[in-house]
């Protein structure tokens, strides 16, 4: 048993180092996707935004506890953003990745905080997105995107 302890410690140490490396890679990948996505939104390019999703992606927008929008598939997501851009001259999007993990090979789960300004109300809209992405053809694409918007009481 005493001989196994150093081996076990070495395995634990390597595993922790590998996990930290994977987490760093996950954060880097998530930040890269979030930056490109924000750039596409800020350029008002619905097709470029939709290209960040796999063809059969799901994007669900939840305000409080109510689903207020559901887009199934890349074409539906592009349509959502075309409608959003039509009614608004400029919608600057800013986001910050708060956590990211590689949950399986080529599968990334990440959470980000976002803020959208330039809305007709003059008030910024803030929320969180919880996203699962898949690495396909050498780039990360969103498979599911849950957009969470808090609702203020009153």
From TrEMBL:
Keywords: Signal. NCBIfam families: SgcJ/EcaC family oxidoreductase. Residues 1-22 form the signal peptide. SUPFAM superfamilies: NTF2-like. It comes from the Bacteria. It comes from Tautonia plasticadhaerens. Residues 35-140 form the SnoaL-like domain. Pfam families: SnoaL_2 (PF12680). This is SnoaL-like domain protein.
């Amino acid at each position: 048993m005493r001989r196994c302890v150093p081996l076990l410690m070495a395995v634990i140490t390597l595993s922790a180092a590998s996990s930290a490396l994977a987490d760093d890679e996950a954060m880097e990948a998530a930040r890269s996707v979030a930056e490109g996505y924000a750039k596409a939104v800020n350029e008002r390019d619905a097709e470029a935004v939709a290209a960040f999703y796999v063809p059969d992606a799901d994007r669900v927008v939840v305000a409080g506890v109510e689903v207020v929008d559901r887009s199934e598939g890349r074409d539906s997501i592009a349509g959502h953003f075309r409608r959003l851009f039509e009614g608004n001259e400029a919608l600057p999007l800013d986001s910050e990745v708060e956590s990211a993990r590689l949950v399986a090979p080529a599968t990334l789960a990440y959470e980000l905080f976002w803020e959208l300004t330039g809305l007709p109300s003059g008030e910024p809209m803030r929320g969180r997105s919880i996203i699962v992405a898949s690495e396909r053809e050498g780039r990360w694409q969103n498979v599911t995107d849950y957009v969470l918007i808090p609702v203020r009481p009153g």
